[in-house]
Amino acid sequence: MTTELECLAGRLREFARVREWERFHTPKNLAMALAGEVGELVAEFQWLTAEESRDPDPETLARMRTELGDVTLYLVRLADVLGVDLLEAARAKLDDNERRYDAELYRGSARKAPPS
């Protein structure tokens, strides 16, 4: 992880430790909490038009920002508990997607690539 992500993971680790919450921060519980926060983020987009979603009003954007923060915190905490380097996992997934979705074959297409 990068230094900033490592610092954030460390702060989250300490946040849980001083509250004696480590026993609750199991991968299962963190994944479920992450899914809940993603749901709250999605709810902010639910009834917006495509255009409104690109340029939300300031109040909606503030709520989206809060939910994105929640999603990020749970994702970083989950990765830390599992010992996963989040940026390395993302890089590996992007490398895989670049192999699977050849730009010439998939340009302008929303079709899914066959399983690798």
Give the SSE map.
Blueprint: H1 3-18, H2 27-45, H3 50-54, H4 58-82, H5 86-100, H6 103-106
Helix pairs in contact: 1-4, 2-4
Features of the shown structure:
116 residues; 6 helices; mainly alpha
Give a short synopsis of this structure.
72% of the residues lie in helices and 0% in strands. It is mostly helical and 116 residues long. The mean pLDDT is 96.
In percent, how much strand structure appears in the residues? under 5%
Largest sheet: none
CATH architecture of the largest domain, by name, is: Orthogonal Bundle
Rg, Cα atoms, Å = 18 Å
Number of helices: 6
CATH superfamily of the largest domain: MazG-like
Helix content: over 70%
- CATH-assigned fold name of the largest domain: Helix Hairpins
- The tally of strands reads 0
The averaged pLDDT comes out at: 96
**Topology order in helix (H) and strand (E) letters:** HHHHHH
Task: Give the overall form.
Answer: globular
Low-confidence stretches: none
Class by alpha and beta content: mainly alpha
Query: CATH first level of the largest domain: which class?
Result: Mainly Alpha
